[in-house]
Each structure stands twice: as C-alpha cells, then as structure tokens.
Amino acid sequence: MIHSFDDWREELRDVDAELISLLQRRLELAIEFLRLLRTDELSLGDVDQDTLRLGILLSSEREGDFPPLDEAAVKKIFRRIVIETRRQAHSSIASGDDDDTKLSAREREVLILIAEDHSLKDIALKLKISVKTVESHKATIMKKLNIYSSVGLTRYAIKEGLISI
Q1: Please, what is the average pLDDT of the chain?
Q2: CB neighbours of 20 closer than 8 A, spacing ≥ 6?
Q3: What Å distances lie between residue 55 and 41, 71, 75, 125, 164, CA to CA?
Q4: pLDDT at 99 over 80
Q5: Cα dist from 112 to 30, 89, 107, whole Å
Q6: Is the pLDDT of residue 129 over 90?
Q7: Which domains, and CATH codes, for the chain?
Q8: For residues 131, 116, 24 and 77, what is the CA-based torsion angle, rounded to 10 degrees?
Q9: How many angstroms separate the CA atoms of 68 and 124, rounded?
C-alpha cells in the first residue's frame, strides 16, 4: 500500500523495471526468432513479407485499448531487429580481445549511469564534468563497443554484469 510520495515513486520504479524486463525479453524472443529463420524462409529483402512472418512478435493479445502499430512503425521495428541481429552476428565473428574495446574506468562509470537511465545532464552533475564531456564519453563507448543506441548499451551492461535488472 502506498502511504507516501517515496512509496509511490518506489512502486513506479518497480513497475518500470518489470516493463523494461518484459520488453527486453520480447526483443530477445524476436532475435531468437530471426536466428531460427536464417534459412531462405526469411528474405531480409522483402520487408512486407518478412513483417508478416514476424507479425506475431510485433503484436500482442494483451494490447488492450492501445491502437495497433501502423505499417511504418512495424517496418521500423523490423529493420531495427535486423540491424541489431546483423550487428551481433558481426561482433561475434569479429570478437577478440582488442585493446580498442576495453573501456577506461571513466567510460565504464558513464556506461553504468547510461544503463541506469540517467540523463546526460544528470551524469554530468554526478561526475562533476560537462555535458559535452559526457557526450564525448558516450560516443567513444559506442564506437569501442560497436553499439549505437542507449538500449544497446543497457543490454551490454546487463550482459557484462555491470548492472542488474
């Protein structure tokens, strides 16, 4: 039961954490599905045909009163899944212990704070550096890890055990 603003905020954080976990699992299932379809069954060229095949992953029986995704949104999600799958496949092929992928202590700090969903301004205040410096660290991290989204950085941080869900 919620008795104070802090209780309400904690409850909201718990709900958000559950939602993020569910969305991450849904994306993992979509990627697993793509791996299963590495044969000719998935063309990766005919987006309309492929989105029909992936439609089960992009809609939910529990959407309730939410309007269905429009075609453009479905195509954008599908393209993002394909890009992420290709990136993961490429990085697993090219994986090695390059010195380029090792993060400095400060980059690791910034990565953890990004993964914990802090804004760049919050990170700058917390680390007592400028927002431009935070942006620079984020760009360097993304380049070193070959990950170009905050969601991807969060997934990396979870996978590496830097943060927990």
Answers
A1: 75
A2: 165
A3: 14, 11, 10, 43, 30
A4: no
A5: 25, 24, 9
A6: yes
A7: 5-93 (no CATH), 99-159 (1.10.10.10)
A8: -10
A9: 38
Number of residues in the chain? 165
pLDDT in tens, 29-76: 776 766 665 544 444 555 555 555 555 455 555 545 555 666 677 667
Q: Are 81 and 31 in contact (CB under 8 A)?
A: yes
The whole-angstrom separation of Cα 162 and Cα 109 is 10
Percent of the chain with pLDDT over 70: 59
Task: Identify the residue whose tokens are 């949104």.
Answer: 73
- Asked if 115 contacts 153 with a C-beta cutoff of 8 angstroms, the reply is yes
- Residue with tokens 């991450």, as numbered in its chain: 24
Gap between the Cα atoms of 56 and 74, Å rounded: 11
